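idk why but the lab printer keeps eating my pages so im just putting this in chat instead. protein + zinc ion:
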Amino acid sequence: MNELLAAYRYTTNNFAQIGASKVCGCCNCVALFKPDDIVGWTGLTLQNLDDPKAINDQTAMCPHCGSEAVLGDGCGFAINANFLARMNEAWFQRTMIHRPKPKPAA
Ligand SMILES: [Zn+2]
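predcted complex ->
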């Protein structure tokens, strides 16, 4: 699989992965920051606040631009300016992925 495509999967539901990371970066604004800098997460509601799976499935928001496009090096990719620039070019400037909606069960 293309490494950019592989890495893109880690920009969502990445709470546990980012907790295991030393450095994080944003594919949208190309900022590098520490996992501790992330203060915004999406995915929890009042209904699942205490659900450990829901907590681990949270998605990080970039502390700089608010995008849900954060990668941590815990995903196995080296997070640096060059890698983020390639991700940014691939996903935000040229070939933004539009995820298909889940098909209703037939
Ligand atoms: Zn950002």
